[in-house]
Amino acid sequence: MKIVKKNQLVKYLFWLGPFLLAVGLTSGLISGSWGLIPLAFLIAGTVVIGIWFVWQSQQNKWWNRRSTQVGTNALVAIVAVLVILGLINFLSTRYNLRKDLTEAQLFTLAPQSQELVRTLPQPVKVWVFDVNRNPQDRELLENYRRQSANFQFEYVDPQARPGLANKFGVKDYGEVHLESGDNRQLVQTVSVNERLSEIRLTNRLQQLTSGTTVPVYFLQGHGEQAITSEQGGISQAVQRLGDKNYPASPLNLVEKAQIPEDAAVVVVAGPKQELFDSEVKALQAYLNGGGNALLMIDPNTNTNLDNLLQEWGVRLDNRLAVDVSGSGVGLGPAVPIVTEYGQHPITQDFGNGISFYRLARPIEIIPVSGIQATPLLQTKPYPDSWAESDLESDSLEFNPETDLPGPLTLGVALTRTIPQPQPTTEAEATPTPQASPQPTTEAEATPTPQASPQPTTEAEATPTPPTEEKSEQPVIESRLVIIGDSDFATDGLFQQQLNGDVFLNSITWLSQQDQQPLSIRPKEPNNRRINLTIAQANLLTLSSLLILPLMGLIAAAIIWWKRR
């Protein structure tokens, strides 16, 4: 009777241990603090359960039983698996590691976006006024937030928070707004057919953080590409410039033969007629004063810019660039394909990407002192490409006497450093009094040649500070980009491959806003389709439905016969 009561007491003692553990966990979770009372209950419950296990092992010797060992091993294995899974979840939450295995990096932010978000000078928040939380948009915003703690986002129901919606001027569901301090901007309006764009979000983020505008002027009046939505215009390029806070305006140098002072970049996009001499002089004066220009000159055009280009060491070839390697993708020989780019900020992220130029002319670079030239766009070597001189012939054949073998340069970036005049008037005032006390012609005829050989050496030895002051003179940099084609930036072709990136990156580099990210090319999955002929499709169908099953049946019959 005493043994039975003692066993019942020990049984109740075992249930006291889990009860104390439950009390300790409940009190700690509800109060939110693991103070003395929750820890006391947890320790007491652990001690009680431990005492029960020790007593049971001594009384029943159950620890040596095979069933106990098997159960213990299973329990330890389960606990180990749970601990490993918990540790993996903890590490994945604490240290975020993602790997995009897609070839085009479809689920990774562009390097320009990553650099911009990582260097945010102040907190920025994205407000998405929508009820539906699209997983694709949310994943994009999560990628931004992983780059910096200064980037946050929040989904808001406009009807649930009308005050916040009125603050941003929300008019419809799907509006995405960007806020930084007191500055707010509308990014775009998302819908079922239009998802949140990384390009627009990064451009708006750049505008909001920088707060600077870069005026770009397009020369007009000589048959250039129209900046409106007319056929053959460059309205898409102008719109993308506006998204980057680069407002575009037309420029007519006939009405006013002077480029505006606020012009960051002047674009000459495919003129068909010659420029007047006064216009050329205005461009020369603009470049000599530290201006920047993008010249897109088509073949078979005389623009009257030869003297200006000669100063920069560039000569436009009148022959037509031919590339016979584009027939496989539906491009004719008059559309050169470029996959080789120069080492330059404009093309540094292009890799082996594709850009093409319809009806382009080669560019010859002539070394000129004081000017740094970098080829941007180069065609494939001969025999894939060459410069054709006979444009009236129906058949394109390379003539070594008149044609130029590839590779050809279709684009070049040039930089010229222009020293500023010494602003101090003291240096100009000191030499004049030395020359003024000798007004007589005899003194100018005799003493000057005698004094010149002696003081020159002394002046070079002693006035070292003036030479240092001259080396510290302020300098300005003038930039010029020349491309032998303008069709690549027109509507329809602007969004093809890297054509738009060539144009936008050129404008960004010319504007000398080097701290701003260059353009972001859209990411598209590579085309992995297999184009089969009818005969190939029939052969594939026959092999999959007849030949392969028949081979399997024959192999099975042979194995059965051997075993029989």
Keyphrases for this structure?
single chain, 564 residues, alpha/beta, Glutaredoxin, Rossmann fold, 8-stranded mixed beta sheet, 4-stranded mixed beta sheet, 19 strands, 41% helix, extended
Account of the 3D structure:
With 564 residues, this protein is of the alpha/beta class. It has three domains: 2-94; 111-210, Glutaredoxin; 216-390 and 399-421 and 474-510, Rossmann fold (3-Layer(aba) Sandwich). The protein is built from 18 helices and 19 strands. The protein has helices spanning 2-31, 36-60, 66-94, 111-118, 135-147, 162-168, 198-210, 235-243, 277-288, 306-311, 426-429, 431-435, 441-445, 447-451, 453-461, 464-471, 499-510, 534-563; strands at residues 124-129, 151-156, 175-180, 183-189, 216-219, 248-251, 265-269, 292-296, 314-316, 320-323, 337-338, 340-341, 355-356, 363-365, 371-378, 385-388, 404-405, 409-419, 475-483. The strands form five sheets. It has an eight-stranded mixed beta sheet with strand order 6-5-7-8-19-18-15-12, with helices on both faces. A four-stranded mixed beta sheet has the order 2-1-3-4, covered by helices on one side. Helix 5 links the parallel strand 1 and strand 2. Helix 1 (2-31) packs antiparallel against helix 2 (36-60) and helix 4 packs parallel to helix 7. It is extended, with a radius of gyration of 38 Å. 27% of the residues are buried. Residues 426-471 have low confidence and may be disordered.
